[in-house]
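[Q] Does anyone have a clean structure-token version of this?
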Amino acid sequence: VRRQKREAKHALSPGIPDHMFAHQRGLITKDEVRLFTLAKLNLPRRGIVWDVGSGSGSVAVEAALIAPELTVYAVEKNARCIKDIRANIRRFGVGTAVLPVPGDAPEALKGLPRPNRIFIGGTGGELLPVLRACCRALLPAGRIVINAATLETVDRAAAFFRKHGWAAEVTLLNL
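[A] Here you go.
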């Protein structure tokens, strides 16, 4: 007799498989990229994280699971994605550790508490205004991690940081 293995409600380690998240048309940071992103964020035990262009909220949810004393603001303009973020908050039991923020960045960032870490997963074509708002808000010794799908976005972001005297590191993941 063989026992069927059941998948846990959520993984016990970082890198939750993509299929466990509610998401729209692939608007999710893929699990391998999410692992790398969370490592580069070097999350503090407690504080504030902004997930800008949150999509499904997969990065926000995993950040909250890794460091439950964080408060993560999942900023997203797509109403269907906001529903997915809320579903994923319930599915993974992160309660009020992840707070959905509907709206377009950078406008939706106004009034949020200043963050220790910022993840930028999407900007809706507003990269430079979003970067300006994020740099103004980031607390000292903070960190920004950007995932870019195009080399143009990488170049524009790196040039922005160089112009402002910030150290920038670019890593290419090929999966």
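[Q] Thanks! Anything notable?
[A] Residues 67 and 86 are 19 Å apart (CA to CA).
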